[in-house]
Amino acid sequence: MVHVNDPAVVERLMRTKGTWAIVGLSTNEWRSAYDVSLYVRDRMGMQIIPVNLKGEDVHGEKGYKTLAEIPARNHPIDVVDCFVNSQRVGAVVDQAIAVGAKALWLQLGVFDEAATRRAKEAWLDVVVNSCPAREGWHYGL
User: Fold this and answer.
1) How far apart are alpha carbons 82 and 120 in whole angstroms?
2) Order of strands across the sheet with 103-106?
3) How far apart are alpha carbons 110 and 89 in whole angstroms?
4) With helix as H, strand as E and coil as C, how does 35-52 read?
5) How many domains does the chain have?
6) With 55 labelled, which of 34, 81, 82, 110 sits at a CA distance of 20 to 30 A?
7) For residue range 71-81, what is the model confidence (pLDDT) as tens digits?
8) Can you tell me the distance from the alpha carbon of 36 to that of 134, in angstroms, rounded to the nearest whole number?
9) Is residue 109 part of a domain?
10) ω before 50 within 30° of 0 (cis)?
């Protein structure tokens, strides 16, 4: 069964202040994660945590290689926002479940039905094929 985003969940995630782990956020300014993460932090008012293969700091925020490396002081992780390709997102979803994340946001073009199902079964809120920077105008953000 194909996932359909619940507008109430999207709005709640967009409006409720919290911590967003941005997986795939690096210092590469050409990648969409670079600008979208600024929107999430500066327009939406969220704390962001970069997660990337090198563990690079981005936008002055401490970076980590995996969700598991994020220290307990930064928990709970309210949203895991995934900018990784569809073939890699299943492993990220499993990490999100393991660290007790509350929600999963798969960016535009990121699909994995099995991973989405696992997230729902673990009681995570799920948003698929969407971008907070494109949704923000609905909520005056």
Assistant:
1) 16
2) 47-51, 19-23, 79-82, 103-106, 125-127
3) 8
4) HHHHHHHHHCCCEEEEEC
5) 1
6) 110
7) 999 999 999 99
8) 9
9) yes
10) no
- Domain encompassing residue 58: 7-139
User: pLDDT tens-digit profile of 104-125?
Assistant: 999 999 989 999 999 999 999 9
Tokens of 5: 């985003």
Residues 6 or more apart whose CB falls under 8 angstroms from that of 97 comprise 118, 119, 122, 124
Return d(Cα 84, Cα 23) in angstroms, integer. Answer: 7
pLDDT digit string, tens, across residues 43-98: 999 999 999 999 999 999 999 999 999 999 999 999 999 999 999 999 999 999 99
Residue 105 located in a structural domain: yes
**Are residues 129 and 110 in contact, defined by beta-carbon separation less than 8 angstroms?**
yes
Any idea what the CATH number is for the domain that residue 24 is in? 3.40.50.720
Note whether residue 2 is domain-resident.
no
* 33 within 8 A of 131, measured Cβ to Cβ: no
Decide if 1 is inside a domain: no
Nearest to 84 by CA among 40, 24, 22, 20: 24
Question: Would you give the DSSP letter of residue 129?
Answer: S
